[in-house]
From TrEMBL:
Cob(II)alamin binds at R60, D131, L155, I166, S213, C238, D239. Binds 2 [4Fe-4S] clusters per monomer. It comes from the Bacteria. It is an enzyme of class 1 (oxidoreductase). This is Epoxyqueuosine reductase. [4Fe-4S] cluster 2 binds at C195, C211, C238, C241.
Length: 307
């Protein structure tokens, strides 16, 4: 077995042991197909107030500008599909935010993987990324054969669906590269038809500035009143396009204890949410990604839903 193949097998086996759903690897070079797409998206202002998307354009497309001398992008998926969801007829939180903030959970696993690579293979340098740096996660995961980008612009995988996080290690080690998989959306338009705010403007294009996740998490000002009554009770994030996707019939519950929700989260009714105090917010979302919107942001969202 040549060393490239041996190292690749080692890394993929360890990724599985650490609890990752799957691991795919691609060559760290310029994302040629993504460049015009990203430019177009930004030029059409589909990022709304997310001005940070305009920064580091070149780094988003070229990993060697992020990690000097990098040769491989190791993409990893981590399942977050929950065993149980919130009670019926309540204000809803996106499933990815039920448990401990994924940034912490995944960062720890990535660090372990990088240390393992250094211990087993030798002097390898690189960096771990969890959606916090200018890395086009979905593009790399698709390039690494982990799935295809669906019409809702999320990564989709046969047999698994799309309820998973994507993360990367960009390292200066030559490995065996995976090949791209095919698109299996076919003629289905379930996500486009179901989007409450019509944010999926055409297949594979999402206008981020019309997405419920953007309004409830990213937008710092007041939510525009023309979207009143269109939020389908989502107060943090939105899972509609994923919930209706036929491929998510195959989602299986995760086995990461840190992603289990605070018990109170699942049983809270609309009335409970309307009366939520800072104290309850801090308790229920102690280590959750929901803290990003802060108590005031969540209150703003709840008020927008009930007015």
């Amino acid at each position: 077995m040549n060393s490239k193949l041996k190292h690749t097998t080692l890394i993929k086996t360890e990724a599985k042991r650490l609890g990752f759903l799957s691991c795919g690897i691609s060559k760290a070079d310029f994302l040629e197909d993504e460049a015009p797409r990203l430019e177009n998206w930004l030029n059409n202002n589909m990022h709304g107030e997310m001005r940070y998307m305009e920064n580091h354009f070149d780094k988003r497309l070229d990993p060697t500008k992020l990690v000097e001398g990098s040769k491989s992008v190791v993409s990893l998926l981590l399942n977050y599909f929950p065993e149980e969801t919130q009670c019926q007829n309540t204000f809803k939180v996106s499933k990815y935010a039920y448990g401990t903030d994924y940034h912490f959970v995944i960062k720890d696993k990535l660090k372990s993987l990088l240390h393992f690579i250094q211990d087993e293979i030798g002097e390898v340098s690189g960096r771990a990324f969890v959606d916090s740096a200018p890395v086009l996660d979905k593009a790399w995961a698709a390039k690494s054969g982990l799935g295809w980008i669906g019409k809702h612009s999320n990564l989709l995988t046969q047999q698994v669906g799309s309820f998973y996080f994507i993360a990367e290690l960009i390292i200066d080690l030559d490995l065996e590269y995976d090949s791209v998989t095919t698109d299996h959306c076919g003629t289905c338009t379930a996500c486009i038809d179901a989007c409450p705010t019509e944010a999926i403007t055409e297949p594979y294009v999402v206008d981020g500035s019309k997405c419920i996740s953007y309004f409830t998490i990213e937008l710092k000002e007041n939510i525009p009143s023309e979207f009143k009554g269109q939020f389908d009770d989502w107060m943090f994030g939105c899972d509609v396009c994923q919930d209706v996707c036929p491929w998510n019939r195959f989602s299986k519950p995760h086995n990461e204890p840190l992603f289990n929700p605070h018990p109170e989260l699942l049983s809270m009714t609309k009335k409970d949410w309307e009366e939520i105090t800072q104290e309850t917010f801090s308790k229920v979302f102690k280590k959750s990604a929901v803290k990003r919107t802060k108590f005031s942001g969540l209150k703003r969202n709840i008020n927008f839903l009930k007015e």
